Predict the structure.
Amino acid sequence: MPTTDLTQIHDRVRTVLEKRFGDAARALAPDAELSAALPGFDSLAALEYVSAVESEFGIEVDFVADDVRYWFSTLDRTATYLRERIEDQAA
Amino acid sequence: MNHDVLLRSSGVVSGESDLWCTYAAVRTLSWLGRTGDLPSPETVAGFLASRRNTDGGFAWSAGMTSDAWATYYCTQALAELPADVRGTTGEASSAWVWSTLHADGGFAMTPGQTSDVWATYYAVRTLVEIYGERPPEALFDWLAALQAEDGGLAWSPAHAKNGTSDVRACYYAVTAWSTATGGRGPLPWNRERLTAWIRARQSTAGGFTFQAGDTTDCLWATFRATGALARLGERPRDPEGCVAWIRQRLHPDGSFTRWPGYPVPDVWAAFCAVGALRELGTDLDEVADGVVRTVLSFRTPQGGFTYRAPGFASDVLTTSAHLLAGRFTDAGARDALRWTESCVLPNESGVMYMPGRGSEVRCTLWALSAGAFRDDAPARAAVADWLTDAIQNPDGGFGYWEGRASDMVSTCAAAEVLRLTTGEPPAAALHGIAGYVASCETEPGRYANVPGGRSTLRATLQGLRALHRATDSADGARVADALARHRVRGGGFANEGNRVPDLLSTYEAVLTADVFGLPLDAGHLAAFLDSVRTADAGFAWTPLMATSGGPLADCLGRRLELRLSSARHALPPLALS
């Protein structure tokens, strides 16, 4: 069963960001706004981020119903969103 | 009247830096040996670097696709800045430039597009001057085919067969040849006929025009003519008269204006005047301080430059967006429309993005949709003539501006402009549009932005609308099929696939459905608008972004709200990308 441990989810999301943003993602505070903290985090990068998270966790995000601009705006929020999705899938 | 309207600028200022303005400013300072006067070159470098895409090319604005024009301007301007602030342009950019090479030996503005001399010039300069690489041998055959019957050079080999020579095409082609060969290779054209054609564009007043038949000399044409002649080892027919004409464009404030009667010193006039005086071997010391002072006053907080003092730097797209969104008082709207209508060059009847810049098809559509020339039938007729007589390409399509290779966005915009400006466009022009659209069909009912490209929702809808406007031959069932393929379950439409909706695709989806009389799912559209509405009462381009996408996004969102209202306001026929 996929883990719902928030720390592990956090680490996997950070790894996703590191692949694109390198050192800036490694030093990222969990509650930092990605658009402010990561140089070049524009709408295209945001889309790539969501797609990479989908691929990493095997989920499909609903871009209209899921309030993606909130849940994918910080590392913390993304991890929380993913834990809920994983728990929903397991239920 | 235009004099005062332009001087006061009653349009809307976006406040943003512009890439072409930033390039022109940095090059001007460099030619004057004054880049050291830039107070914070790192902010200029930051603005230029922000245009870089992950494919290695650069885009006109963040989020757009890479093109040869932006890639040259960004890399060249970065190269002019101090080494410690410019960063690395990287190998990836060279690879991207090579991806625009066309099989015919010319280069295209974007990969897969038809080659034209604008793109070829930018690509060759980037390859040689930035990356130290050599263009292919086939380039010279392509350049050779640009010479038209009258001796001048045209935008492409196909344009040359039609006999459309232009001073800018001469400069871009001659400079591409000179850059590729160091000016030492065999000249691919008949020198005497080419030199004579360029020299003949000089008027008795001393300045140059772009084309035979143009009536008003301008600094841009003068710069390009003197540059082309210098690379050919030639001079204007009357060099002293040319220098005198350029000096007459010097404004009391210390910099230059574009043409006689135009009141505003702008960054392109400074760029063209300094460039032309340099080509003519004139001492620049006398004008340097005034030009530097003026150009530096065009900096914006974003890091780059705009075209004039930032508080007055209105542009047509932002102004049209405000008009279309109903954000003016009645008096303000009248002033804004008058300013928009003044954004027309002496020799080109389309509307410019910024005054003094060059007419653009999409800007013309936004301006007309916002109400420009609504009560001026001769002006509307002139716009239609500009489209069909001057800038329609030999393949029947339209590019962003004169000489640019065709694309679906511009071709659809042109079809809409013709509908707004003339009751009966020439049949040949309409058949040309239909022919170009057909060349972009990837499979029945699906279209790409350029021939051989990948089909997308927006290109498909633009193609079907262009066919509908041009020949009334499009089938509503094709529109319904496209909308079904790209409908996002929760709300809105996606340009590719059916998962990520965006504002522009959704706008074009509703617009096209209305044009073809297809039903609107109001709940589906409302859900999408909720997902892109922002806290500051604006609209984001996609549900991923928390902040407004700017005046154009706010305009499209507002117009969709009005479409959903009980009054069911019709959507203006806008196209953007």
